Amino acid sequence: MILDIDAVSKTFEMHVLDGKTVPGLADVSFSVDEGEFVAIVGESGSGKSSLLKCIHRTYEPTNGTVRFRTEDGEIDLASCPDRDVLAVRGSELGYASQFLDEIPRVPAVDVVARPMWEQGTDREAARERARELLTALSLPADLFNAYPATFSGGERQRVNFARAIGPQPRLLLLDEPTSALDPETRASALELLDSYLPTSTTMIGVFHNYEVVRRIADRVVVLADAELQRVVDVADYNPEVLA
């Protein structure tokens, strides 16, 4: 087991509504084995992205633990100091969201290469790997040295996806990372998850596409109204029954 999520809850306080609290997650528990791909599914507002953000510690859980077995020992991402979270993100924990947070005046190839050279990869070697990933994702070569702020939504998503997988993290979180891609590029992105990442890579991903879930996942976590409904093997997943 590489990740154990135990009784994780997240509530949001709405200051504009006189402090009313809204549940984002309620007592969610499951574990993930090393090398496993777990898909998270559910209707809009069911808590899928909130769960990923609690694992990544973009959100600090209100209750519960998120125990991640790093190469240096176990860490509770729900409660450990921020410096420890940042250290793990820089070495073992990757995250690809739907949207790219652009870095001003940094070309696409360096946006992708930066996490790799921050891990110690030679700068030119990191740039070469970044070019290979962007090529595999069908980003035109004349955009490699352009600024992503000028890109379309699909082009930004390709850069974001390449940046997340570039360092080959041990645990990769995917929040609808291919939602803006055309079917051919989406297929290329999913192929990279198989061909580029080590087989030991553990992945947890939010996807709305049933065929994508059936193709890549080992198990499926089903959420509804911020609560865990069930965890099933992908062969037993039927969106008409479970979602």
Overview of the structural elements:
The chain has eight helices and ten strands. The chain has 243 residues and is of the alpha/beta class. It folds into two domains: 1-92 and 170-242, P-loop containing nucleotide triphosphate hydrolases (Rossmann fold, 3-Layer(aba) Sandwich), CATH 3.40.50; 101-168. Strands 6-7-8-3-9-10 form a six-stranded mixed β-sheet, with helices on both faces. A hairpin with a 5-residue loop joins β1 (3-14) and β2 (20-32). α3 packs across α4 and α3 (108-118) packs parallel to α5 (153-165). It is globular and about 45 Å long. The two termini are 26 Å apart. It holds the Pfam family ABC_tran. GO terms for molecular function: ATP binding; ATP hydrolysis activity; transmembrane transporter activity. InterPro entries: AAA+_ATPase, ABC_transporter-like_ATP-bd, ABC_transporter-like_CS, ABC_transpr_LolD-like, P-loop_NTPase. It comes from Natronomonas moolapensis (strain DSM 18674 / CECT 7526 / JCM 14361 / 8.8.11). This is Alkylphosphonate cleavage complex subunit PhnL.
Essential attributes:
single chain; 243 residues; alpha/beta; Rossmann fold; 6-stranded mixed beta sheet
In short:
Residues 3-243 form the ABC transporter domain. The protein has 243 residues and is an alpha/beta fold.
Largest sheet, in brief, is: 6 strands, mixed
Q: Name the helix and strand elements from N-terminus to C-terminus, one letter apiece.
A: EEEHEEHEHHHEHEHEEH
Which regions contain 5 or more consecutive residues with pLDDT less than 50? none
Name the beta content range: 25-35%
Mean pLDDT: 92
* CATH level 1 name of the largest domain: Alpha Beta
CATH architectural name of the largest domain: 3-Layer(aba) Sandwich
Shape: globular
**Contiguous helical run count:** 8
Query: How many domains in all?
Result: 2
Keywords: ATP-binding, Nucleotide-binding
GO molecular function, one term: ATP binding
Protein name: Alkylphosphonate cleavage complex subunit PhnL
Organism: Natronomonas moolapensis (strain DSM 18674 / CECT 7526 / JCM 14361 / 8.8.11)
